[in-house]
Amino acid sequence: MSRLLDQNTQREWARQQRILLVLERRYSRRFAREIRAESYRIIDFYKATGEIPAPSAAHELELTVVETDLAKAATKAFGGRILDQGKASGLVLERKFDYATFFQNVAMRWVEDEMVRRRITNIAETTRSQIVRQVLRGQEEGLGVDQIATNIARNVSGIAKMRGALIARTETHGAANHGADASARETGLQLKKEWIAVEDDRTRDQHRDVDGDIVGMDDTFTVGGENLRYPGDPMGSAENTINCRCAVGYVVQE
Length: 254
Known about the structure:
four-stranded antiparallel sheet, about 10% strand
């Protein structure tokens, strides 16, 4: 059996993780910055009026900008490896093949996916709902508006940092594998895809169960009763995608 990338699946997994880690660190800071700015906006409004405003359209727009940049970078990083290896394997891409436009289009398809759009909206709504909970807790303790606002503001940076890291990890993982999938199809090679789970005790049982499974490019992996196109598929539940560390590889059909 010949694999398009590294023949050793665990070595390929490690290589993909190194690329993802660089991207996660870059975009976790950007997500955290947006969450922090929106949190302070809500707190300031609450302090001035005693009311908690709805998520701002500007915040959701900025989150979309970050998601778009993330998708472009992840698609280029993962898709570029696929296309380069496809070319090295004997496929001659069209001479005028425009890598930049291809990566741009694939990234935009990711951002425009209904489930990804919904997750962006959920990020904004979660920022507000967390503050609502803290306000209610402060009111139950008999605190005034100013004290509640001060207490919430004290925790904003830490919460934004943690959420930013988790969001970046989830979004980068899915966008990268989406880009890899589109690039694998673009090579023109006859391929199948392989689920690669890491061999440690942190791996979910349902992900370990599909380690090494190979399916057709148009087929899905059955993971914990769900049909996933690749690790991090936005169609999957939070239980199957958040903090997932699995990778996808490609097998050349003989």
